[in-house]
Amino acid sequence: MSGEPDVSVPARALGDPARARIVSALLGDRAIPAGELAREAGVSASTASEHLRVLLDAGIVVVQHRGRNRFFRLSNAEVAHAIEALQSIAPRAEVRSLRQHGVSEALRAARTCYDHLAGDLGLRIADVLIAAGVVSELQIGEPSSPPEPFPDGPIVAAFGIQRPEGHRPWARGCLDWTGRRPHVAGQIGAQILGALESQAWITRRPGNRAVRLTDVGAARLRELESML
What we know:
By secondary structure, this protein is an alpha+beta fold. It has helices at about 10-15, 15-25, 35-40, 45-55, 75-90, 100-110, 120-130, 155-160, 185-200, 215-225; strands spanning about 30-35, 60-65, 70-75, 110-115, 115-120, 145, 170-175, 180-185, 200-205, 210-215.
């Protein structure tokens, strides 16, 4: 018989600045090689290996072997949600360079959170979906089903929204550290990220999980917002 969840296990695993930088880099739902994660954490390759072993033992990351290289990613969406929620209550790190300032502003504007959009852009999209009745008011961690009848119209078409498949929640509130309120996760969040990338509304910025809203995307989003 199992007792209560032992939060000390992930807390100890995340309770190191270098490991915190590693998991933050992995929030973009990418498989990243150990060497790149070492650079992100600002530690040597051997030290990064030790940190990654701790994260593996705690079930926070998984490893994929590709030839002689090891690639790491977060274990699942629940881990990503927990890390994003911790970021919303964590103090802001001091910005020490112009580059850090630029990266911070880019992440605040628009970024990926595992397989969905976050930041100011993610919150704007959440507001559009709620105002259009596509999703109900979002509750942190609470899954919701699509309304019946299934929604249609220009907003659903523009965001590439389709009926849910499988057991993953269709919509779910994920706490955003930018606005300290939920953006949209779940199947619908992943569908929207995929649609916006395929339609060139957004492009990914190299080197981190920030994304950029293109001129086409900005114009289309303003058009959808004007319909509400």
